[in-house]
Specification:
This protein has 93 residues and is of the alpha+beta class. The protein has a domain of 62 residues: N-terminal domain of TfIIb, CATH 2.20.25.190. The protein has a four-stranded antiparallel beta sheet with strand order 1-2-3-4, covered by helices on one side. β3 and β4 form a beta hairpin. It is elongated. The structure holds zinc ion (ZN).
């Protein structure tokens, strides 16, 4: 009789794998959106930052159905509405 050895599957889960989006400020595909859980406040916060131009923005995620794509869409809306503070360009006057 053969012995059966079962291997346990190890599933590595990354709950907050950053996804890169296009930055509305500099146009580079370097905009990283991360949704992090604040355990103390029991709320989620979206952290948006561009690795290219240094644009940063944070906002609360009030609903569990909101994912990075939704955050990105709202971020774009806010950006064009002038609600996002754009970092000062260094080469700019
Ligand atoms: Zn940028």
């Amino acid at each position: 009789m053969g012995r059966r050895r079962r291997r346990r599957k190890i599933i590595t889960r990354r709950p907050s794998l950053p996804t890169v989006f296009q930055c509305p400020n500099c146009g580079a595909h370097a905009l990283i959106i991360e949704i992090v859980q604040d355990k103390k406040k029991k709320e989620r916060i979206a952290k948006i930052r561009c690795a290219s131009c240094g644009l940063v923005h944070e906002e609360p995620v009030e609903s569990p159905i909101i994912d990075r794509a939704v955050v990105y869409g709202r971020f774009i809306d806010k950006f064009y509405a002038g609600e996002i503070r754009v970092p000062e360009g260094e080469e700019e006057e």
